[in-house]
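Mods, move this if it's the wrong board.
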Amino acid sequence: QAAAFLLAKRYQIIDQNIRFDFGEIDILAKDPDGTIVVVEVKTKISDDITEPHEAVNAAKQKKLLRLARAIEAEYPESPIRIDVISIVEDKIEHIKNAVWVK
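Not the wrong board. Structure tokens:
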């Protein structure tokens, strides 16, 4: 669902479910502007009051930054961004720059 959403927005899907020893990237994509995007996908599957993107806490942000740095080494010529896609039933919210890569 998230990959199809990004494709409809003219993103190129580079890979999905990329595993490292220290974490996993749900989707690695290329924005139409050339930015390499590490995408964290969060889905609401229960009656929890919180929104899915709220699960991206400080520990998860730190892990995403580490994953982005690993990807940055493979794409040194491209800017890197971390986005979160939040899915609740049929509603998809795309939060760009959800975690700031310095």
